[in-house]
Design goal:
The structure is a single chain. The protein has about 220 residues and is an alpha/beta fold. Helices cover about 40% and strands about 10% of the residues. It has a six-stranded parallel beta sheet, sandwiched between helices. α8 links the parallel β4 and β5. It starts with a strand and ends in a 6-residue tail after the last helix.
């Protein structure tokens, strides 16, 4: 049985991934660098490269890249002073599933940023535990964040299911022994997730995936997706 659901934050619970990309793209454009959704999905959310690396990959000098990221961070901080939308279906899904399962958040965002985002969402009461970048030395796709949440909750990864939106998050979860499904967004590089990974087009499909996996586990067979 799936005892615990482990949720990524940005792009899964809230639409902060879009805001982060847009502020990054605007900063890059000010220096004549073109950043596309596809490039961001492949290198940032896929391969786990840092923003400053991507700026240099697009042609910025190390000094210019550092300045651009400082500008992006300032702009994104200002954006977080205003509410970030909760993604469609999330409140209803969390309310429905939380009555039967423990839930936690595993995010690569700093705690201060996470707290700002959730100042107005009303989602935090659903979660027993939150692991942020402040709790880890290594970022996703490294499995440290998921290993940390497993220790805090005192559970085996095989009793959990992670919900991510990127190959980077998928690699982090599975590297810690946690089965994972990926919620498709405009920034998800689906091909990089691999054919064996379940791709959700809508978070409301999660109920069906959970039921399918639990039936398969009871029957002693591997789920089809």
């Amino acid at each position: 049985m799936i005892e615990v659901l482990l949720w990524d934050n940005d792009g899964v619970l809230v639409d902060s991934e879009r805001a982060f990309f847009e502020t990054t793209r605007a900063a890059f454009e000010s220096a004549g660098l073109e950043l596309t959704v596809e490039y961001w999905a492949r290198h940032y959310l896929g391969a786990g490269r840092r923003s400053i690396e991507i700026a240099q990959m697009l042609g910025a000098s190390p000094h210019a890249a550092h300045r651009l990221i400082e500008e992006r961070n300032r702009a994104f901080g200002e954006r977080l002073e205003f509410p970030i939308p909760v993604l469609p279906g999330i409140p209803e899904t969390l309310a429905r599933l939380s009555s039967r399962r423990r839930m936690a958040v595993v995010t690569g965002s700093p705690r201060r940023q996470f707290d700002l985002i959730h100042k107005h969402t009303g989602l935090l009461p659903f979660f027993e535990c939150v692991v942020t970048a402040d709790d880890c030395e290594r970022e996703k796709p490294n499995p440290e964040a998921y290993l940390t949440v497993l220790r805090r909750l005192g559970v085996d990864g095989r009793a959990c299911l992670a919900v991510e939106d990127s190959p980077r998050g998928l690699a982090s979860a599975t590297g810690a022994g946690v089965p994972c499904v990926v919620l498709r967004t405009a920034f998800t590089d689906v091909k990089a997730c691999g054919s064996a990974c379940a791709i959700l087009e809508d978070v409301c499909e999660l109920d069906g995936v959970i039921q399918e996996r639990e039936r398969a586990a009871n029957d002693g067979v591997k789920p089809e997706r």
